[in-house]
Amino acid sequence: MSTPIRLIVGLGNPGPEYETTRHNAGFWLADHIADDLRASFAMEKGFNGFVAKARHGGENVVLLKPMTYMNRSGQSVGALARFYKLAPEQILVLHDELDLLPGQVKLKQGGGHAGHNGLRDIQAAMGSPAFWRLRIGIGHPRTLGLAQQVADFVLHQPRREEMTAIEAVIDRCRAVIPMLLDGDFTRATQQLHRANEA
User: Fold this and answer.
1) Is position 13 annotated in a ligand binding site?
2) Which residues, including other chains, have CB under 8 Å from residue 84's CB and lie 6 or more apart?
3) Which domain holds residue 125?
4) How far apart are CA 44 and CA 52, in angstroms?
């Protein structure tokens, strides 16, 4: 068993105009996890974000949706991690991933940010890339046969068939969250990645 996850961060952009865009996949999953843990989000100005507090196996779990816009996510994550004295290894970041197709998901610890501004900023704020990431596939405009620029693509709504695939992934992610909160990353990874091959 590894160090259990104690802070779950969903990445997205604040405001109704971004609510249904691909870049907000992390927010969508965070909302579902909060529901599953019977927690509700409330704005906490000191952390520049919506925070929900839950319990799992007698331990505190904190959920965060930064309200700083994607490229300043680290501000919010860093403040909360310092307040709760959390190590990067205890943090799980939920985010959209261009390199995976809709319907795919990957769990990984550490690594680069692959140009994802939210991850880049969290890495800088934490002084370490050692946090965990749940990478929710949204596809890339090229692989999906679209002529859109990436920046434009992530700020648009997924097409219906993509959304169906993303929603299925969100359900798969929800199923493994209890394992991550118990520190059982091996089992969670096997269960998540097995479905990618199906």
Assistant:
1) no
2) 6, 7, 60, 62
3) 7-194
4) 10
* Neighbour count for residue 168 (Cβ, 10 Å): 14
Question: Binding site annotation covers 84?
Answer: no
Name the strand (E) or helix (H) holding 95: strand 91-97
Within a domain: residue 21? yes
In this predicted structure, what is the pLDDT of residue 8? 98
The total number of structural domains that make up the chain: 1
pLDDT digits (tens, 9 = 90+) for 82-112: 999 999 999 999 999 999 999 999 999 998 8
- Distance, in Å, from the CA atom of 17 to the CA atom of 88, rounded to the nearest integer, reads 31
Whether 23 is catalytic is: yes
Q: Rounded to whole angstroms, how far apart are CA atoms 81 and 156?
A: 31
Which residue would you say has higher pLDDT here, 178 or 116? 178
Residue 1 lies in a domain: no
- Phi, psi angle pair for 60, to nearest 5°: -80, 140
Whole-angstrom distance, CA of residue 92 vs CA of residue 70: 16
pLDDT at 198 exceeding the cut of 70: no
Q: Tell me, what CATH number does 77's domain have?
A: 3.40.50.1470
Whether 167 maps to a domain, the answer reads: yes
pTM: 0.96
- Residue 113 pLDDT: 84
Could you report the per-residue pLDDT of 23-42, keeping only the tens digit for each?
999 999 999 999 999 999 99
Q: Is residue 94 part of a domain?
A: yes
Say which DSSP state 64 is in.
E
